[in-house]
C-alpha cells in the first residue's frame, strides 16, 4: 500500500447514491474521493440511469430529464463542492485491518479511514446484440418498467415483459396502466413467482402469456418493432410486434471485487443494519442498489447515499476526524470516551 496519509472517505461507485454521498461528504469538509468506474459493456459510469432516456419521477424537475443528464448534474454538483473523481474501477479492497486498503485498476494503491460502497447492481440482459444496442440508445428496451414504463413512448402500445419471477410479475402489472396489451414471455410452462403475484398477472384482462418461449432476436433499427421468439419445446420460430421490451430476469449486485469480506444477503446484496447503512465491518458503509433488491429507484438510492455519508461523518467524528460535532440519538448515544482515535 501507499505510504501517503489515509483518505478520510473513499466512495466507490457513480450512481445517485455515490454522488449524493459525495455531496454530503464534501460539504462536511471530508475531502472525499470517488472512484466512478469505467465503461464495461452496458455498464457505464453513472449506473443504470445511463440507459434511461427520460426520468420523470426524480423530484425537482418539472419536465422530464434524461438519465445521463441527471447523473451529469449530480456529478458536477459533487465536484463543485470539492469532490475528487478518479475514472477507474476499484479491483480490490482490504477491509481486515485499518486503515482500509484500496487497489484501483491502474493507480497506486492507497488507504482510507472509511469506505462507502455504492457500486449498484447490474441488470441481467438476454444478451442479444440488438437488445443491448437499443437499450443503450434508448430505442425501447429497458430493464425497469417503474423507471421507464410511464413515458409517452410506451403508452398505448403492446409491451413485452421477459421473465417469470416476482419482479416480472410486478413489471407486467405496472405496465397495464399504460399499455394496450402486456405480453409476458416465459421460457417455461409455469411461473416461478409467488402464487399471489402469478395469479394477479394471469387474471388481468390486459395481460397475455406466451409460455415455453424465449426471445432470440430483437427487431428494429432506431426503435424496437418486434421480437423473434423460439419455442423451447418444438424449436418453432415466430415473430411478434411490440412497441417496447422490458427485461425482468433479475439483477446482479456489483460486489465481486469485495471477495467475500462483507456479509451479504441470500440474494447477494450487501447486508446492512436496519434503517442504517453500516456493514458488519466498522467504518465500511454501503448505499444504493448494492443493498436494495426491493425499491431499486434513483431517489431511494440517493436517500441511502445521504444516510451513508452522514453515518461515515459521525463515525469519523467518533474517532477524532472532522469538524462536525459528534451527534447523539436515542439509538446511537455518544460514548463518554471514544473507543479510539486515529493518529
Secondary structure layout plus pairing:
Layout: E1 7-12, H1 16-27, E2 33-35, H2 67-80, E3 84-86, E4 90-94, E5 100-104, E6 110-117, E7 121-123, H3 129-137, E8 141-142, H4 145-148, E9 158-162, H5 166-175, E10 181-185, H6 195-203, E11 207-210, E12 213-219, E13 226-231, E14 237-241, E15 244-247, E16 251-253, E17 284-286, H7 298-318
Parallel strand pairs: 1-2, 1-6, 2-3, 6-17, 8-15, 9-10, 9-15, 10-11
Antiparallel strand pairs: 4-5, 5-6, 7-16, 12-13, 13-14
Helix pairs in contact: 1-2, 1-7, 5-6
Explain what you see.
This protein is an alpha/beta fold. The chain is 23% helix and 22% strand. The protein contains 7 helices and 17 strands. It has helices at 16-27, 67-80, 129-137, 145-148, 166-175, 195-203, 298-318, and strands at residues 7-12, 33-35, 84-86, 90-94, 100-104, 110-117, 121-123, 141-142, 158-162, 181-185, 207-210, 213-219, 226-231, 237-241, 244-247, 251-253, 284-286. Strands 1, 2, 3, 4, 5, 6 and 17 form a 7-stranded mixed sheet that branches. β12 and β13 (226-231) form a beta hairpin. The longest helix is centred in the C-terminal third of the chain and has 21 residues, at 298-318. The chain is elongated and about 65 Å long. The relative contact order is 0.17.
